[in-house]
Specification:
The protein is built from two helices and five strands, in the order ββαβββα. With 77 residues, it is α+β, with helices and mostly antiparallel strands. 19% of the residues lie in helices and 27% in strands. Strands 1-2-3-4-5 form a five-stranded antiparallel β-sheet, with no helix packed on it. Bound molecules: zinc ion (ZN). Zinc ion binds next to loops.
């Protein structure tokens, strides 16, 4: 899994971020429109945090839909 440590605007601290998975990218595209570039989005893995943002553009951050909160639990389904 690709991860990196980035500054999370929601947590207010440095957090481990990982690249969005396929479902997350689809959800963002649904929200932002079909032309939205989703291949370089990173999400915070902090507990209860749904923040994502494009690499090098923290100001362009957004939040994933709540269904992605319980990603660890959902992964086993
Ligand atoms: Zn965060």
């Amino acid at each position: 899994m690709r991860t990196r440590t980035l500054d999370c605007p929601t947590c207010g601290t440095m957090q481990i971020f990982r690249i969005l998975d396929k479902e997350e990218r689809a959800a963002v595209r649904e929200e932002e429109g079909p032309g939205f570039f989703v291949d370089n989005l990173w999400r915070c893995t902090g507990t209860g945090c749904l923040t994502y943002y494009p690499q090098f553009n923290k100001a362009g951050y957004g939040r994933l839909p709540k269904k992605f909160l319980a990603e660890e639990a959902a992964a086993g389904e």
